[in-house]
Amino acid sequence: MPAKLSVNLNAVAMLRNRRNLPWPSVTGIGRLALQAGARGLTVHPRPDQRHIRFSDLPEIRNLIDDEFPDREFNIEGYPSEEFLKLVEDTEPEQVTLVPDSPEQNTSDHGWSFSQNRELLARVIGRLKKGGFRVSCFADPDASLEELKIARELGADRVELYTGPYGACHDDAAMAKVELEKLRETGLRAESLGLEINAGHDLTVENLPDLVTHLPMLAEVSIGHALTADALVHGISETVRRYNKALGW
Ligand SMILES: CC(=O)[C@@H](O)[C@H](O)COP(=O)(O)O
Ligand SMILES: NCC(=O)COP(=O)(O)O
């Protein structure tokens, strides 16, 4: 089965937040994305709420529960106590733990599982007890030893950070190097029984090569480029284009 598309709504929320007005509606765009065939919605609420506001989460939860009960809600973020409470209140199908500091502009690296063993053991234990699927953001070249720790700590999935691959959009030779790295890391993770997601700076142009190199991908979460494309083509047509690029 091709990888499932989860549409990240952060960029839509950022546009909404320019004014003290309710449009574009984050939930409304989410609904159109799901109607067009997205398999899930992703948000990455940051502590300053500059994109997604904490108050957006119940609305998105209700949208999926009431209108699209077979789709998934994925919440990404650093596991602060505030974040964990938000997750427990919202009950997403998947939680993606990301090692971002509050002042970080965007995500730019995966976890060092060895250096964050205690924190992640506590957090993953708590989330698994709550019944959530847990994915952990991982570097595109994460070693077998690091991935083994993620597995031992109870992670179900890793999300491979594809930023360096996305940055090679005008350099085919470099893109090939990054794709090989991702493929090898994906195979290492798969050999440990981890499922594999991917995300960051994925585009409709760079998706086909990614899924060829990582046929085991379970899910991709895409926001920035997909929202940019939606300005040109509309959200529904854009979701159809991304699904086609994934092989649906
Ligand atoms: C973990 C990851 O790659 C995404 O969550 C991405 O960082 C989106 O976050 P922003 O939209 O805040 O950049
Ligand atoms: N996990 C990655 C994500 O949700 C979206 O990243 P981007 O497409 O906005 O770079």
Automatic annotation (TrEMBL):
Domain of life assignment: Bacteria
Gene Ontology BP annotations: pyridoxine biosynthetic process
Chief localisation class: cytoplasm
Keyword Transferase: yes
EC number assigned by the record: 2.6.99.2
Residues given in the record as 1-deoxy-D-xylulose 5-phosphate binding sites: R46, H51, T106
Record-linked Gene3D superfamilies: Aldolase class I
Site feature (Transition state stabilizer) residues: E159
Reactions catalysed according to its record: 3-amino-2-oxopropyl phosphate + 1-deoxy-D-xylulose 5-phosphate = pyridoxine 5'-phosphate + phosphate + 2 H2O + H(+)
Compartments reported by the entry: Cytoplasm
Gene Ontology annotations for the cellular component aspect, listed alphabetically: cytosol
UniProt: 3-amino-2-oxopropyl phosphate binding residues: N8, R19, D201, G223, H224
Metabolic or biological pathway, per its Swiss-Prot or TrEMBL entry: Cofactor biosynthesis; pyridoxine 5'-phosphate biosynthesis; pyridoxine 5'-phosphate from D-erythrose 4-phosphate: step 5/5
Catalytic residues as annotated in Swiss-Prot or TrEMBL: H44 (proton acceptor), E76 (proton acceptor), H200 (proton donor)
Keyword Protein biosynthesis: no
Keywords associated with the record: Cytoplasm, Pyridoxine biosynthesis, Transferase
GO molecular function, one term: pyridoxine 5'-phosphate synthase activity
Pfam families in the record: PdxJ
Assembly and interaction partners: Homooctamer; tetramer of dimers.
HAMAP family per UniProt: PdxJ
Similarity comment text for this entry: Belongs to the PNP synthase family.
Record function comment: Catalyzes the complicated ring closure reaction between the two acyclic compounds 1-deoxy-D-xylulose-5-phosphate (DXP) and 3-amino-2-oxopropyl phosphate (1-amino-acetone-3-phosphate or AAP) to form pyridoxine 5'-phosphate (PNP) and inorganic phosphate.
Name of protein: Pyridoxine 5'-phosphate synthase
Originating organism: Nitratireductor aestuarii
